[in-house]
Design brief:
single chain, about 260 residues, alpha+beta, Glutaredoxin, Glutathione S-transferase Yfyf (Class Pi), Chain A, domain 2, 4-stranded mixed sheet, 10 helices, about 60% helix, globular
Length: about 260
């Protein structure tokens, strides 16, 4: 394994002006930018190509690694970088609890709102543009049924829409209650938890998918400022795209 070469990051193609609609793909790329680890993106619409039939995964030389937590531990070890090095035991404990809240519960809410609920599907149907038109509706139905099965067995789908939304807002209230003052989650410098929080926020508040959860979060200026700040610092090319589109829209409206 040659740790001087950029790793290859396999993830879903970008949608909207965020790193990725998938919070796990978005987390991984954001962590790489926070840590300063060189990488190359390989757009991979089909997660079955991954070593665990999931995205993201990386290639590091002749090694393939899946699961964002395992990838991060591998890169800490082989690249000698650790954005969390300055955290104390209490902060590490908070970071783990926030990670569990967002990845082991709220991520399933995103699957529900973005990949199963009709409002989300209206905006994310372009995921299947690379599929031949003749079989595109069939593939879309198969994927929706797969998502349905996942969130049913996880338990989320056994609740009403209102209960799902209420639980998701409680998730965010808990996360925001332990965020430190300052531009990043633990203050003045970004750490690994910022990759997770930004990834899930970006999919929620920086996309056009309208949900009561989005309304709750966008109603808090500090939350929107945080998401915009993370995008501007670590994905300036995406922030520029948003600004250019906003300028064009204002120009059209003024005519």
């Amino acid at each position: 394994m040659n740790d001087t070469k950029p790793i290859r990051l396999f993830q879903f193609p970008r949608m909207f002006a965020i790193p990725n609609l998938s919070p796990f793909c978005s987390k991984m790329e954001t962590w790489l930018r926070i840590a300063g680890v060189p990488y190359e993106v390989v757009d991979t619409p089909d997660p079955r190509k991954g070593p665990r039939a999931k995205l993201p995964f990386i290639e590091d030389g002749d090694v393939r690694i899946a699961d964002t937590s395992h990838i991060i531990e591998h890169l800490k070890r082989t690249r000698g970088v650790d954005p969390d090095a300055r955290l104390d035991d209490g902060q590490r404990a908070v970071a783990l609890l926030v990670q569990r809240t967002l990845e082991d519960h709220y991520a399933f809410v995103l699957a529900y709102t973005h990949l199963f609920h009709e409002e989300g599907l209206r905006h994310t149907s372009s995921r299947f543009d690379s599929v031949p038109a003749l079989v595109r509706p069939l593939v879309a139905r198969v994927v929706k049924n797969q998502v349905k099965k996942i969130i049913w067995y996880q338990g989320l789908l056994r609740h009403s829409h209102e209960q799902i939304v209420e639980a998701a807002i409680r998730d965010w209230k808990a996360v925001l209650a332990v965020k430190a003052p300052g531009p990043f989650f633990f203050g003045d410098e970004p750490t690994g938890i910022d990759a997770i929080v930004f990834a899930t926020l970006a999919s929620t508040v920086l996309t056009p998918i309208d949900t009561p959860i989005r309304d709750f979060l966008r109603g808090q200026k500090d939350v929107v400022d945080y998401a915009e700040r993370m995008r501007a610092r670590f994905f300036p090319e995406l922030a520029r795209r948003v600004e250019e589109r906003r300028t064009r829209d204002e120009s059209v409206l003024s005519q």
